[in-house]
Amino acid sequence: MNNAGVALFSTVGQTSFEQWREVMATNLDGVFLCTQAATEELAKTRGAIVNIASISGLRASTLRVAYGTSKAAVIHLTKQCAAELGERGIRVNCVAPGPVRTKLAMAVHAPGDHQRLLRRHSPEPLWRGARDRRGRSCILCSDKASFVTGRTLAVDGGFDATGVGLPALRRDPA
Q1: How far apart are CA 15 and CA 24, in angstroms?
Q2: What is the DSSP track for 76-105?
Q3: How many other CB atoms sit within 10 Å of the CB of residue 136?
Q4: pTM for the complete prediction?
Q5: From CA 120, how far away is CA 117, in angstroms rounded?
Q6: Tell me, what DSSP letter sits at residue 54?
Q7: CATH class held by domain 17-171
Q8: For a surface tag, which of 30, 80, 122, 174 has the fewest beta carbons within 10 Å of its beta carbon?
Q9: Which helix (H) or strand (E) element contains residue 48?
Q10: Tens digits of per-residue pLDDT, 34-52?
Q11: How confident is the model at residue 136 (pLDDT cuts 50, 70, 90)?
Q12: 58 in active site
């Protein structure tokens, strides 16, 4: 499981190259290096790799030039690794979570943003937000997914279909 991330919420014009590299080093380079390090051991057991991206890697939104690009790159790296490591018996998949109450999400969203976002952009039965972040990854590692590789599973309560960027969310008076 490759699950690490840092976020920087700024525009392309406001993001320094040093900030860009910090986000890429953690969010993308970390996945690459950990995958390289685990490959030999995983080949012995026909193991599986699950990379954690983000819904921001599947859909563009404002203020996420570095974060969204890094997570989109993780999604493509997943496909590359699936293509290359499949012949060694290693499956590689990706999970792209939507709004999940994590330390990172709570640190970058203004108070109340998370609940407003869920109420506004998820189908009513799903606006509770994701509760269990482990289950979807465990399924991708299990024998039940033995013929699944190179895929990205969006676990987002409909956010990809209905979401908008943070500035629009913050203008919402509700």
Answers
A1: 12
A2: HHHHHHHHHHGGGT-EEEEEEE-SB--HHH
A3: 18
A4: 0.79
A5: 5
A6: -
A7: alpha beta
A8: 174
A9: strand 48-52
A10: 999 999 999 999 999 999 9
A11: low
A12: no
